[in-house]
Design goal:
Blueprint: E1 7-9, E2 12-14, H1 17-27, H2 31-39, H3 42-49, H4 54-71, H5 75-85, H6 91-103, E3 109-110, E4 114-115, H7 119-132, H8 137-146, H9 150-157, H10 164-175, H11 182-189, H12 196-205, H13 211-224, H14 226-241, E5 253-254, E6 261-263, E7 290-292, E8 300-303, E9 305-307, H15 313-317, E10 328-330, E11 336-339, E12 344-347, E13 350-352, H16 353-358, E14 367-369, E15 372-373, E16 379-381, E17 384-386, H17 392-400, H18 416-426, H19 433-442, H20 449-461, H21 470-477, H22 496-513, H23 522-530, H24 536-546, H25 548-553, H26 555-560, H27 563-576, H28 581-590
Antiparallel strand pairs: 1-2, 3-4, 5-15, 6-13, 7-14, 8-11, 9-10, 11-12, 16-17
Amino acid sequence: MPSPFPITIDDVDYPDAGSLASEIARRGDLHLLQEAAWSHPSQYFERWMHGDDSGRVTAAIHAASQRVVADSESGDAFEHAVRLVGSDGDETFLRTVLDRVDAGLPATQFWGGQTELSARTLDWVQSGVATKLPDEETRFFALLARHGRFHTAVFLCMNRLSLHPAIHDIVRQWAGSSSFDLSEVRSVASFSGLIPGLTLDLARDFADAPGEVRDAFLAKVQQAEPALYEAEGAAIEEALASGGPAAAPRAAWNHCQGDGLLANTSLVFADDQRDFYGAGRLDLVPCSHLVCTRCGEVVRHVDHREPTDTLDVASLYDKKSWGRAKGLRSVEPPQRFYGCRCIHSSILSHTLIETHNAREDLTPLPWTCGGHPATTGFGVVNGLLIEGATAIEALVEDALRGLTPQSYETPWEEHGAVWLLRLYGRLEGNPIQSRVSEAVGVALTDSETEVRAEALIFFLQQPFAPGSEALMAAAVDSPELFQDVHGPDSRENESLEFTLLRVLGSRYRFDRQAGRAPEPAALEFLRQASLRPHLAGATLPTLADVDLDWVMTYRMDIARASDTNALAIYIWIGNEAPEHEAMVVAELKEAGLIGEDL
C-alpha cells in the first residue's frame, strides 16, 4: 500500500516508508519518526506506516533504538527508544536496557521535575523481560526497589504468582522507606492478586509498619475481598499484629472507587457520610471524606473560588471560613477549590483521584478516600427505614415498578433500577445486600415488560451481583420475554434481548479475564444471536474479543441479517482486525450492505 504522496520533514521528501526507515537507521534518530507522526494527519501517517515497507521501518526502529539505549546520555531519548520498541525488543536490547537502568541511566524529566522513568515504560520492559529473559525478571524488580520504585515494582509483579518472594522482599524494603504511605498501600492492596496465602504474607510484611498503615491494609482487604476476609479475617489480623502491639479493630468502612471522586459544583456532596462512590453507580458521588496521606489533614473545599499567586495553602487551612479568605478569588461556576495543609487543586469537571494521578502531565495529589461508615446494622438508608423485618423482596418489586422514595436528586431518578443500585451500594457490608440483587434476579421473568427492563438496567451495572445467575436461565428458558420486546425507554432497535445480550457478553469477558470458567452455553448463545437482525451490536464486543475467527468466518451471514448488523461488522472488524479491514469493507460495499462513503 504505497502512499499516494510523500512525507515531508525538514524540506526533505520521503516517498515511502522504506526511504524514511533508511534515514532513521543512518542517523540513529528516533525523533525523526516522532516528528513525522506529529507533522502529518494521523490517519494518513498510520496507513503510510503500515504499507508495503512497514517491515523496513520496524527494523530501522529496532536498530536505532539499540544504539540509543546503549549510548545515549539523555534519559528522555532512552525512554523514547524503549517506548517505540515496547515489549518487542530482542534479548540483546532488553539486557542493555536492564544494564543501563541498573547502572543509573540519565534521568528523564517527569511529573514537574521529578526524575524517573514512567511506569508505562517500565511495564513494557517487564513484559519483554518476562517473555524473553525470564531468568532476569527477579533482577528487574530488585533493581527497581534499589532505585526506590517500590510501588511500580509491586504494581508490575503483584499478579505474577511465581514472584512471591520478590514481592515480599520489595514490600519489606518499602515499609522501611519514607515513600511508604497510605495511598500507595491502598493502591497495592486493591489488586486481584490478593489470594489468601499472599494476603497473609503481605499482612506479615505490613506488621512493622505504622499502626495506621496496618489499619488501612486491613480495611482494604475487608472492602476488596469480603469473602476472603470472612474466611481468613482472624488470621490476617493476627499476622498484622505479629510485629508489634495490635491496633484496635477498625469498624467496617466503605471506600470510594478510584481513591475518591473530585467534582465541580455541578455535583453536590451527600448529607449522609455513609454515601460513597462505588462500582456500578450511575450517579456520581463526590467523596465527602478525603484525607491527605502526606500532611494527614482532612481535605477541605470551597465552591466558586480559585487561588491567586499570593495563596499560602498552609495558613489558609487554619482559616475557619474560606469564602472570603485571602489568596482566593471569586470565579464563575462550576469551579470548586480543594485543599489540605500542603497542596491544593482547582476542579473544573470531575475525575477520580486515581485517574488524575495516572496522567503524566498533572501534579499527583496525595489524597485518598478516608472511608465511609458501612451500614452494618439496620437503619435509615436512602431515606427508607430498613429493619430486620423489612420485606426486601416487596421493596425491590415496588422500586422496579417506579414506586421509590425520592430521597435524592439524580438525572436518572425516574429509573427504579438506579434507586436500587444506590441502595445496593450503600448496603455494602450489610447481610441484606444480597437479598436486594437476588430479588432483582427473580424479576427478570416478571410478567410486566417495564419490570424486566429495569432489572436488566440493574445487572448492566452489577453483572455479577447475587441473583445474576438467573440471566442465562431467563435467556434460554423464556426467550419470548425478551425477543422483539422493547421497554418504555428503549432506543430504536434495542430490544430487551439486546440489553440481555450485552450483560451476558460482559459476564463472559470478565469471567475469562479473571481466570474463571465462563458459563458453558454462553458463547454459543452469543454466536447464534449475532446471526439475527439488530443484535450484532450487542454480541460483537464480546465475540470480536474472544472468538474473532468465528466472526471472520460468518461475517457476511451476520451482516446480511440487518443494516445495523452490517454496521456492527464494519465497526468491530475495523477495531479488532484492522489487517482485514480493507477486504471486509470491500465485501460489504459490493453486497450493498454499507454505503460507498464509509
